[in-house]
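Dear colleagues,

I hope this message finds you well. In preparation for our joint manuscript, I am sending the Hemerythrin-like domain-containing protein (Crateriforma conspicua) sequence together with its predicted structure, so that both groups work from identical material. I would be grateful if you could confirm receipt.
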Amino acid sequence: MNTSDTARRLGVNAAFLKDIKDDNQHLKQLLDRIDPLIKHPTVACNHWSEISALLDELRDQLAFHFSLEEAYGYFDSALDTDPLRSAEAEHLRAAHPKLFARIRDLADRAGETAPDAETKVAAVVSDYKTFFRSFADHEEAELRLILSTLDDDIGVGD
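The corresponding structure tokens are as follows:
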């Protein structure tokens, strides 16, 4: 194996994998708890204080989630030699503050919205659904980037 092959190898840190696994499980649980509460406007109004608390928790969890991704730099080493992947990684990292600002603002709005203000509740719910789609697309793009890097790193398709 030459030096350039060694430099391209993706390092896997066991502590990182556990942190990411735990974080992803908690995120999924939060999202799964929010989903049924926002499906119907009446249910959302009736459970508004719970939804507001869950959005606060989601905001905090996403702050942790994004900081984990950035602190561990989990695909940095594998992307150093590929300008296209590096650009995609930078684009994905740049989305973190924007996504966080959106969930922070949603959590704030939910906390300021009275459960009997049906129009405002509906607006927050609609904005959450839009946020969720953006976040899910972002996470999927990160996963595709990591998997594509791993595929190249271990020689899938050779």
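For the figure legend, we might mention the following. Residues 32 and 63 are 18 Å apart (CA to CA). Confidence is low (pLDDT under 50) at residues 1-10.

With kind regards,
E.M.
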